[in-house]
Design goal:
heterodimer; A: about 80 residues; alpha+beta; Ubiquitin-like (UB roll); five-stranded mixed beta sheet; 2 helices; about 20% helix; globular; B: about 625 residues; Aldehyde Ferredoxin Oxidoreductase,  A, domain 1; Aldehyde Ferredoxin Oxidoreductase Protein, subunit A, domain 2; Aldehyde Ferredoxin Oxidoreductase Protein, subunit A, domain 3; six-stranded mixed beta sheet; four-stranded mixed beta sheet; 26 helices; 19 strands
C-alpha cells in the first residue's frame, strides 16, 4: 500500500472535521474507505461526494493507483461572488 | 403613480446645485421594459448622457434604483443599485449594494432617486415621504464610514462616503451599513458633488398584487435557498471565502499579480482557516436567508470579515499569507471607503512594477507591514497614494507594464485568474462595466467551482456567457442578490459532484451550447416557468406583471445592450472588449497550451450571437430591442 497525504476542503472538511490525514491506500476508492474510518459519528463519504485532486491535478477515476508521497485533495463544490 | 403593484410608484430627482427636487416621469411601460435596478438606471442614463460627458461633470447623474421585489418580503432582496459615469473607466458603472438604503427609500414612496448637480459645500440629503432636506455636512466631512453613519438618524436608511470618496479616489465606494457599492468609483462621484450622505426614512408599505400567492412563493423560495447545498450550507458556513480552496485546485486563484493561478500558502488564507480560527459568527443583509457575511474580531471590535475577492487579492495576489492582516486591512479599507478589489489590484501591479524596476515605490510582494499606511495614503491622496488612487490603468500609462496591468476597460479584475477558466476570461473582457466577475456572467461557477464544465474549452462559452450575463442582469434589476441564482445549479449535482449525473450535466452544458445560443438570440423560446427558478413567480405575484424565463432573458438582453450603447455614446469603440496580454498571450502553466484565454476565437462567437459588430450592437439589434 502507498503512504499518501489526504486533505479535505470546504463543507466536507467542516462536516468530517478532518483537515488532513496520512493514510495507506492502493487507490482513490480506498482513500475514501480509510477517511471514513477516521470520521467520528455517522457521516460517510464516497467517491461521488467529492471532487478529487491527485498531486494537484483532477482525478476522475476511483481506481487510480497511488504511489508513496501522493497528495490527495477532497473538495466540495462552492460558490460565491 | 404606478398601476403595477410592488413598486413604490415614483422616482425622485434632486438637484444639488439649486437644492431643489421634483418627480421624474417614469411609467408602467418603463417598468415593464426595465423592471428596475441597473437596467432602469441604464435606461435613464441612456436618455441623458452626451458624448464626452465625464464622471466629474456637474451634469453627470447618480441614478440610485431599487427593484420591484425590494420591500416585498422576498428573500435576499434588500439590494439597491447606483449607476453613473465612472471616473475609473469613463464609461457607465453600475454598483450594487445590500444594507438598508434600498428598503428605506421605497418606504418613502420612491423606487429611485436621481442625484444631479453639485453642492456648493459638503451636504447631506435627507429624503422623507413628503420632503427633501439639504443639510450642511461640514461636521461629517472627514469622518470614516462608521462614525459618519453613527451621526445620522439611527432609524433612517443610509448611504455614505468616507475619506476616499471625499478625495475622489477613483475607486471609492458608497457604503450602507457594512455593505458597499464598491465598484467603479461611485463614491468619488459623491465626493465630487460634495455629497457626504443620503438618508431615507418613511413608513409607506408596498402594495402587493397577490399577497397570498406571493406569500406562498416566498415560502417555497426560502425553503429552496435554505435546503440548497450552496446557499443553505456552504455560504452560511464558509461565506464566499469558501471559494479560495476550489480556486487553488482549479488553478484560478490569482497569484502574484495574476502571473499564476496557485498560491503555495493558500491554506493560511482560505475560507476554512477563516471559519475555524477567526469567525465570530455569520450574518447577512436584511431579508437575507443565506447569511454569507463573516463577522470577525479586529482590534477588539466585531466587524465584517473579508469576502473572497479581498481574501484572494490581499492574500495570494500580493503573496501575503497573514489572514489576520487581511481581516485588519478589510476593515480599514471599508472605513476609509474604498473598493477592496481595485485597491488590492492596484497595489499588486505597483509591486510588480517595483520588482521589474519600472517604478521605485517601495512596495514588494510578501512585504506587507506598511500596507495600512499605504491604504491611508491612497484615501487621502498622499505621496505614492496619490498615484495609486487613480487605479491600475493610469499607473500603467505613467510607468509602463500595460501587458500585466490587470484591468479591463480601466477596472481591476476580481480574484479569479481566467487562464484557469477561459469562459470567465471572455466574461471579464465583454463585461460592460469593466473587469467585473459578476457583470461577466460569472461563468467560472460552472467551470470548476460549482459544476465542472471543461474550463479550458472555448466551445459554447460565448453562448453560456451571454445567457448568464442577460439572466443575472434581470435578477439584479428585480432587486435580488445574485447569490440567489445558485439554486439553479441542481442540488443533486452539487451534492454529488463526482457522480455519473454530474458528469452528464458537465458534458451536457457544452453539448447544448447551440441551444443556449438560440435562446440568447430568441429569448421568447424560453417562455416558460420552472419550479427551480422562482423569480418570475415572485415578480408576477408582487407586481401583476406577466413574467416568465423568456421575458426575463429579453429584459436582460435589452439591459445589457442599453448599457453597451451608453458606453458607446461615451466614446467606447472597437477593441474595448479585451484582456491584458498576460492572460491571452502567456501560458499560465509552461507547456500546457490550454492555459491561456483564446479570446479572439470566443469573441467572434460572442459578437455573432449578440448581434454586435466589433463590440457594438448593430442597428438591426437596437431596432429589435427598441433602443433609440
Amino acid at each position: 500500500m502507498a503512504k499518501v497525504d489526504v486533505k479535505c476542503f470546504g463543507v466536507l472538511r467542516l462536516d468530517s472535521k478532518i483537515d488532513k490525514a496520512s493514510i495507506e491506500a492502493d487507490n482513490i476508492e480506498e482513500v475514501f474507505e480509510k477517511v471514513n474510518k477516521l470520521i467520528e459519528g455517522d457521516m460517510r463519504i464516497s467517491y461521488g461526494d467529492a471532487l478529487v485532486y491527485l498531486n494537484s491535478e483532477r482525478c476522475e477515476s476511483k481506481r487510480k493507483k497511488l504511489n508513496d508521497g501522493d497528495q490527495v485533495w477532497l473538495l466540495s463544490p462552492a460558490s460565491g461572488g | 403613480m404606478a398601476e403595477l403593484k410592488g413598486y413604490a410608484g415614483k422616482v425622485l430627482k434632486i438637484d444639488l446645485s439649486s437644492e431643489t427636487f421634483e418627480d421624474f416621469p417614469w411609467s408602467d411601460a418603463d417598468r415593464e421594459r426595465t423592471l428596475g435596478g441597473k437596467i432602469m438606471a441604464a435606461d435613464i442614463l441612456f436618455h441623458h448622457i452626451k458624448p464626452n460627458m465625464k464622471a466629474f461633470d456637474e451634469d453627470n447623474w447618480l441614478v440610485v434604483t431599487t427593484g420591484p421585489l425590494t420591500g416585498c418580503g422576498c428573500p435576499s432582496t434588500s439590494r439597491f443599485n447606483i449607476s453613473t459615469i465612472s471616473p475609473l473607466t469613463n464609461i457607465v458603472t453600475s454598483s450594487n449594494c445590500g444594507g438598508n438604503f434600498g428598503l428605506s427609500l421605497k418606504k418613502t414612496g420612491f423606487d429611485a432617486v436621481i442625484i444631479t448637480g453639485k453642492a456648493k459645500k459638503p451636504t447631506y440629503v435627507e429624503i422623507t415621504e413628503d420632503n427633501v432636506l439639504f443639510h450642511d455636512a461640514s461636521d461629517l466631512w472627514g469622518l470614516h464610514i462608521t462614525p459618519t453613519q453613527d451621526k445620522l438618524p439611527p432609524k433612517a436608511g443610509k448611504m455614505v462616503i468616507g475619506p476616499a470618496g471625499e478625495h475622489k479616489v477613483l475607486y471609492a465606494g458608497v457604503f450602507s451599513g457594512e455593505r458597499t457599492a464598491g465598484r467603479g468609483g461611485v463614491g468619488a462621484v459623491f465626493g465630487d458633488k460634495n455629497l457626504k450622505a443620503v438618508t431615507a426614512d418613511g413608513s409607506i408599505k408596498n402594495e402587493i398584487f397577490d399577497k397570498e400567492a406571493l406569500k406562498e412563493t416566498n415560502k417555497k423560495w426560502i425553503e429552496q435557498l435554505r435546503s440548497h447545498p450552496l446557499t443553505g450550507r456552504q455560504m452560511p458556513r464558509l461565506g464566499t471565502a469558501g471559494l479560495i480552496s476550489p480556486m487553488q485546485a482549479h488553478k484560478s486563484l490569482a497569484t502574484k499579480n495574476f502571473s499564476r493561478g496557485r498560491f503555495d500558502d493558500f491554506e493560511m488564507v482560505n475560507g476554512e482557516e477563516l471559519a475555524e480560527k477567526y469567525l465570530v459568527k455569520n450574518s447577512g443583509c436584511t431579508t437575507c436567508v443565506i447569511q454569507c457575511t463573516r463577522r470577525v474580531n479586529v482590534g477588539g471590535k466585531v466587524v465584517k470579515g473579508p469576502e473572497l475577492e479581498t481574501l484572494g487579492l490581499l492574500g495570494a495576489n500580493i503573496m501575503n499569507n497573514s489572514l489576520e492582516l487581511i481581516n485588519k486591512w478589510n476593515y480599514e479599507l471599508d472605513e476609509l471607503g474604498m473598493d477592496t478589489i481595485s485597491s488590492a489590484g492596484t497595489i499588486a501591479f505597483a509591486m510588480e512594477l517595483n520588482e521589474k524596476g519600472l517604478w521605485d515605490n517601495g512596495l514588494k510582494f510578501g512585504e506587507t507591514e506598511k500596507l495600512s499606511e499605504v491604504f491611508d495614503d491612497i484615501a487621502y491622496r498622499r505621496g505614492i497614494g496619490d498615484i495609486l488612487a487613480d487605479g491600475t490603468k493610469r499607473v500603467a500609462e505613467r510607468f509602463g507594464g500595460k501587458e500585466y496591468a490587470i484591468n479591463v476597460k480601466g477596472m481591476e479584475l476580481a480574484a479569479y485568474e481566467p487562464r484557469g477558466a477561459v469562459g470567465q476570461g471572455l466574461g471579464y473582457a465583454t463585461s460592460n462595466r469593466g473587469g467585473c466577475h459578476l457583470n461577466a456572467g460569472y461563468t467560472i461557477v460552472l467551470e470548476g467551482l460549482g459544476l465542472n464544465v471543461n474550463p479550458y474549452t472555448s466551445k459554447s462559452k460565448a453562448a453560456i456567457n451571454i445567457f448568464f450575463q442577460n439572466f443575472m442582469e434581470t435578477i439584479s434589476a428585480a432587486g435580488c442578490c445574485l447569490f440567489t441564482s445558485y439554486v439553479v445549479l441542481p442540488a443533486p449535482v452539487i451534492n454529488k459532484p463526482n457522480s455519473k449525473l454530474a458528469k452528464v450535466v458537465n458534458v451536457g452544458f457544452i453539448a447544448v451550447g447551440p441551444v443556449i445560443a438560440l435562446m440568447d438570440k430568441h429569448p421568447a423560446i424560453a417562455s416558460m416557468n420552472m419550479p427551480l427558478i422562482m423569480y418570475p413567480y415572485a415578480i408576477k405575484n408582487a407586481t401583476g406583471m406577466k413574467m416568465d424565463i423568456g421575458k426575463m432573458l429579453k429584459i436582460g438582453e435589452r439591459g445589457y445592450n442599453i448599457e453597451r450603447q451608453c458606453n458607446i455614446i461615451l466614446g467606447q469603440g472597437p477593441g474595448a472588449d479585451t484582456l491584458p496580454k498576460r492572460l491571452t498571450n502567456e501560458l499560465q502553466v509552461a507547456g500546457d497550451k490550454r492555459t491561456k484565454v483564446p479570446l479572439d476565437k470566443m469573441l467572434k462567437s460572442y459578437y455573432r450571437i449578440r448581434g454586435w459588430k466589433d463590440g457594438m450592437p448593430k442597428e438591426s439589434k437596437l431596432k429589435k430591442l427598441g433602443i433609440k
